[in-house]
Design a protein that fits this description.
The structure is a single chain. The chain has 198 residues and is mainly alpha-helical. Among the domains are: 41 residues, no CATH class; 75 residues, no CATH class. 50% of the residues lie in helices and 10% in strands. It is built from 5 helices and 5 strands. The strands form 2 sheets. The chain has a 3-stranded antiparallel sheet with strand order 3-4-5. Helix 4 packs across helix 5. The radius of gyration is 46 Å and the shape is rod-shaped.
Length: 198
């Protein structure tokens, strides 16, 4: 009997320890659940939508980019005309440079009194522009500037040739270089520009 009593005691002890072990984790988890229920998350509720954090960060980045894009444009820029737009005549006044103001005071009546930008698609016609381009090509073919830009002045006849200027009207074979119509076109365009500026 002794053996059987010992076996019974051992079995009872094991059952008791198992019951105690089973009870302990339950109590711990119950306590942890109670503490989790009572403590509010520090930064708000946990996300309920999958990938909510990634989505929220993406929205924040896009909002920041939009704010930077729309606020970074300079308010000082003024668009006079777009490339595809046909403008009858549009101008914008600007401050004159100090050098220009000195010339204005020194020579009253000789120069325009206000400074600005002017845009017009109707000032010079397409035919006149083509004729002026042809005049320029024919005149510049007689000269060759070294280094900088080549210069042709029909009014005075100055043409850059090498390092010096020559009179295009005193060169040989230039009698028939420009026709009467070429000079008439030049005068008409020059007069139009002078009236538009004044």
């Amino acid at each position: 009997m002794r053996r059987s009593e010992l076996k019974d005691k051992v079995v009872k002890r094991r059952q008791n320890t198992n019951e105690v072990d089973k009870d302990k984790p339950k109590k711990e988890t119950d306590n942890s659940n109670e503490t989790n229920r009572n403590v509010e998350p520090k930064y708000g509720p946990l996300p309920s939508i999958p990938h909510q954090r990634v989505f929220a960060r993406g929205v924040m980045i896009l909002a920041t980019l939009a704010v930077v894009y729309f606020t970074s444009k300079s308010d000082k820029e003024t668009m006079l005309a777009r490339q595809k737009e046909q403008v009858q005549g549009r101008g914008h006044n600007v401050d004159c440079s100090p050098d220009y103001l000195k010339d204005l005071n020194a020579f009253p009546g000789c120069v325009p009194e206000k400074c600005g930008r002017y845009v017009s698609d109707r000032l010079v016609t397409e035919v006149e522009a083509d004729l002026l381009l042809d005049i320029g090509r024919r005149g510049l073919a007689l000269g060759s500037a070294e280094g900088g830009a080549a210069i042709l002045d029909l009014h005075s006849g100055a043409l850059s040739k090498g390092k010096h200027f020559v009179n295009i009207y005193s060169l040989n074979n230039t009698d028939q270089l420009f026709s009467v119509q070429d000079f008439a076109t030049y005068r008409v365009v020059r007069t139009k520009i002078q009236h538009a500026v004044a």
